Amino acid sequence: MTLSNPGWPVRLEHGSVSVRPFRRSDANRWSELRRANEAWLAPWEPGTGTTWHEAHSPAAFRAMLRGLKRSIKDGTSWPLAVCWEGTLVGGLTVGNIVRRAFGSAYAGYWIDRGHAGKNITATALALVVDHALTVGRLHRIEVNIRPENGPSNRVAEKLGLRREGLHKRYLYIDGDWRDHYGYAVTAEEIASERMIDRMERLRRAEAERPASSGPAA
């Protein structure tokens, strides 16, 4: 842990899900995943000014990692690998960290399509939010998601994140300025129940809910 970036470096796990800092040896696996998931990920991410294949080469990963090391040193980001049973399957970044009176950051995430639907992303996000709002000494985490991105919105719903509203024309993606739902959680909200525990509670409640039998006759 450093004074400029409290809470970093971090390694967290829950069941088969773990998060850890990216490392240079992830280059080939990251490139393989990102290139294979172009159709799954590209519609939701800002463009890079080059082709998806070029932007997600092993060399591009190493260049990205060098830039991320600078932001880590500045205390403005936590770039994390999301792993399933020890294997890299996605990424989660706590970025735009601002300290002092603001005490806030945003979280963004992606996962390999073949591993979607296993509760991996929700678990990783819950772990990181709990850490960021306690050991990381942040007060607020935001997550911004396009309304059309059903799987990502579902992650926020699984954690019971508060949806604060619609940010009109929030981010330039896929050729236009796109609206995003804004979700958030503060340190006060997890003081009585950790995010990971809230996720498990909500998941149990959903599993126990009787299946709908349709409209009454």
Automatic annotation (TrEMBL):
Name of a matching Pfam family = Acetyltransf_3
Give all residue intervals belonging to the N-acetyltransferase domain: 17-188
Q: Which GO terms describe its cellular component?
A: cytoplasm
Q: Which of UniProt's keywords are assigned here?
A: Acyltransferase, Transferase
Q: Which domain of life is it from?
A: Bacteria
Q: Which Gene3D superfamilies is this protein grouped with?
A: 3.40.630.30
Record GO terms (molecular function): protein-N-terminal-alanine acetyltransferase activity
Q: Family assignment?
A: Belongs to the acetyltransferase family. RimJ subfamily.
The protein's name is N-acetyltransferase
- Please give the organism: Glycomyces terrestris
